[in-house]
Amino acid sequence: MAAAHTSTATEVCGEFRVRAVCPGPVGNVRCVPSSLSPAAGPAPTRARDRRADLLVTLAALALALWVTSGMWRDPNSRAITVNSSDQALFEWLLAFGGHTLTHGQNPLFTTLINVPDGVNLAVNTSITVYAAVFAPLTYLIGPPATFLVILTLNLAATAVAWYWLLSRHLVGSRLAAGVGALFIAFCPAMVSHANAHLNWTAGWLVPLLIWGVFRLRRPGRAVTGGVVLGLLVAVAFSIAAEGLFFTALALGVFLAVWALHPARRSEVRAALPRLAAGLGVTALVAGVLLAYPLWLHFLGPQRFHGTGFDPLIHSEDIAAYGSYPRRSLAGWAGWGTSLAPNPTEENSFFGVPLLVLAVACFALLWWRADRAFRATLAALGVTAVVFAVLSWGPTVKWNGRRFDQTLPFGVLDNLPVINAALPSRLALVVAPVIGLLLAYAIDTLRARPPRHRVSGLAWTLGFVAALLPLVPTPLLTSVREPIPAFITSGAWQRYVPPDGVLTPLPLTVDVYPDGQRWQAHALAHRQGEFRIPAGFFLGPGGPEGRGRIGPVPRTFDSLMDQAGKTGLVPIITDGSIRASQADLRYWGVRAVVLPDRVHGAKYDVDEEALRRTATALLGPPERVEDVWLWRVPA
């Protein structure tokens, strides 16, 4: 039966006789119940479904723990090897968010970092909702352990949320829903972003947003559905604004193609007033909740245009779609490639077998579908192609080689908001489309098995050959330098007045995240506040009014960066001494601190060269606890 209507009727769906609301444009070729009545079917069937639900949930949690297993050995001393800087940033955001909640401070703007200018967190990834919800846990077990809990739950919850959407609204087979959901949650892109991206791994938001949009088509849902969707939009903006933007774009493309299909036009005309009314309520609710964050994002201090990343670098290599990721069984076997700009951005990497399987699933579904469901397939196909092409960035890149041919993103990159998106991340939309095709195909094959056993065996082998190489392997982790006792014991309070400024050496930026780790520890353990110059954030100062990572460098931090990176003491002149002292006065620094071991996120840091350089600029240090300290007069 085609899911081509929204009326409520008594249907026979699989083994259940239910009161079902057919889900319309996202439905399969047969009606699937949106809810079961108390007498929905025989007890053995209901028990089997509950067991299936439990098995998928346990599988999702087991895979999430497997992927993050390297950090569970000791969350406070281990870090994600390829992205310890982002991990430190999110740990700081969790500690800062909890601190603002308990102290009544602004969670979206701060002068604790980048003194004296401060940082606009509305244009950064502030994860405000996570910081507030998990604040008690942050105070109880600390920011590193809380970060790990959220990361693990993100992966598991993404699988569970997609499974719920698939099994309750899109397909009848629990097996089909489980395969589709687990693929989406642990596809190469999600495992790649599990390298410390708490925003992008919050993929559980996407199926909820999809459900919220299509729920608006039902009669009488304009107000309640709009309120629920408005709340979801506000939460999604506060956790992953870029992901919310991509989801809205993908739904817009899907609905446009689906609505223009001749088989759906009458349904669109009937549902359009309800959908428009519901979206109006959604805009009102989300607008009220997000009025200040949006003002701060677009008009507030320390805002910027575009992004601090080069779209040419952060675009998807076309060959990456047929390649394998590094954190997978295929990568473990040596078949992985390095076509991504960095290990956290393997946003496609499906492998040739999966691409072939996805095309075969599409062909099977198209062949068996009626005219109405073909509208859904056409919309899914166009959405996948559009976002795949956009992910290739401004110009063509094949197997690491850049060509001059301009692509669509090269034209769109000048548009507001779009110029703040990294093109390679648009490939994240393709994975759910493939997951939906896999689920639909399995559901169809189970409902109408192939006539010949050879065909059934071929399909089984195809799924195994496509998905087995993509089974994830644990993230790479390593031991990072501990926070000095000078910070953990609270000794810093003797040298920095309340709300005073302390700086580690080198100054805190993305490659030297220690300062924000120290500050996060002090905030989470209620030691009080100290501020730091610089920091890891996006702010103004980039070329052509765009953003940049961290502040514009000054003399003092440039000299320290040179010493720590090269291991050589730079030439120190009277002019550089005066400029460095002026920098310290500009920041209001009262204490300069060098630990025995500095954590370098990308390379080892030479602590001895740093000590000698700082001594040449500021004079001999004093030893306090386990750090070298230079006092700076007020």
- Estimate what percentage of residues fall within beta strands: 5-15%
- Number of DSSP helices? 22
Main sheet strand line-up: 9-12-14-13
User: Biggest sheet, in brief?
Assistant: 4 strands, mixed
Shape call: elongated
Q: What is the CA-based Rg, rounded? A: 27 Å
Q: Would you tell me the structural class of the helices and strands?
A: alpha+beta
Q: How much helix is in the residues?
A: 40-55%
Oligomer description: single chain
- Whole-number count of domains: 2
Mean pLDDT level:
90
Work out the number of β strands.
14
Kindly, what is the distance between the CA atoms of the first and last residues, rounded to a whole number of angstroms? 78 Å
Would you identify the regions where 5 or more consecutive residues have pLDDT less than 50?
A: 1-40
Q: Which terms would index this structure?
A:
disordered N terminus, 51% helix, 14 strands, 2 domains, two-stranded antiparallel ribbon, alpha+beta, 634 residues
Question: How are the elements arranged and paired?
Answer:
Layout lengths: L7 E6 L2 E6 L21 H25 L1 H4 L5 E3 L3 H20 L5 E2 L8 E2 L7 H6 L1 H7 L1 H28 L3 H12 L2 H6 L11 H11 L6 H39 L4 H35 L29 H4 L19 H17 L2 H21 L3 E4 L2 E6 L1 H5 L17 H18 L5 H15 L9 E3 L5 H4 L12 E4 L9 H11 L13 E3 L6 E3 L5 H12 L7 H14 L1 E7 L11 H12 L3 E3 L2 E5 L3
Helix pairs in contact: 1-6, 1-7, 3-5, 3-6, 3-19, 5-6, 6-7, 6-9, 7-16, 9-10, 10-11, 10-14, 13-16, 13-17, 14-16, 20-22
